[in-house]
Design brief:
This protein has 168 residues and is α+β, with helices and mostly antiparallel strands. It has one domain: Gcn5-related N-acetyltransferase (GNAT) (Aminopeptidase). It contains five helices and seven strands. It is globular and about 45 Å long. The termini are far apart.
């Protein structure tokens, strides 16, 4: 019998290649057909290993989820960017490689991100998700998030609505 270890930890610069790989796969899986192809490719292309290593070095808060030493997910988090909303913390991104979705790992990573934000003294949490991303909407609603605000993101002149989920 083989035992798998599941760990969530803060990212280190040497994790940049693996995070970039997960980012590429997760974003293509989540947004292909939703975000225009050229815009999606450009967004993914800008976030290669060098970008991730720089983000981690400049003290961006990035968590990684590892299974037996292999990074299969990540989350980025920090202060809420939407100052008009009272929640202080925000999870900017939470993604898993497609083959690891739907088995509870996202809930574990989400809980760890929430715990880290609370540990930094942030009261309340916001997460934004594109309205067309049914998987994300279902995930955050299932995690107890309340739909409290709407916004718009524009990708190559295509406007997509986004929804803010909140936890107090």
């Amino acid at each position: 019998m083989k035992t798998l270890s599941i760990d969530i930890r803060q990212a280190e610069p040497q994790d940049a290649d693996a995070i970039a790989y997960v980012h590429d796969r997760a974003w293509r899986g989540a947004y292909a057909g939703m975000i225009p192809h050229r815009a999606l490719n450009a967004m993914i292309g800008r976030r290669g290993p060098k970008w991730w290593a720089h983000a981690i070095r400049r003290s961006a808060t990035v968590l990684v989820l590892e299974i037996s030493g292999e990074i299969v997910g990540y989350a980025t988090l920090g202060r809420n960017r939407a100052r008009q909303l009272p929640q202080q913390g925000e999870i900017y991104e939470l993604y898993l490689s497609p083959e690891y979705q739907g088995i509870g790992l996202g809930r574990r990573l989400f809980a760890a991100a929430r715990e880290m934000l609370a540990g930094h003294g942030f009261k309340g949490l916001i997460v934004w998700a594109l309205e067309e991303n049914a998987g994300a909407l279902s995930f955050y609603a299932g995690a107890g998030g309340r739909d409290i605000a709407e916004g718009v993101e524009v990708f190559d002149q295509k406007a997509l609505r986004k929804i803010a989920f909140a936890w107090d």
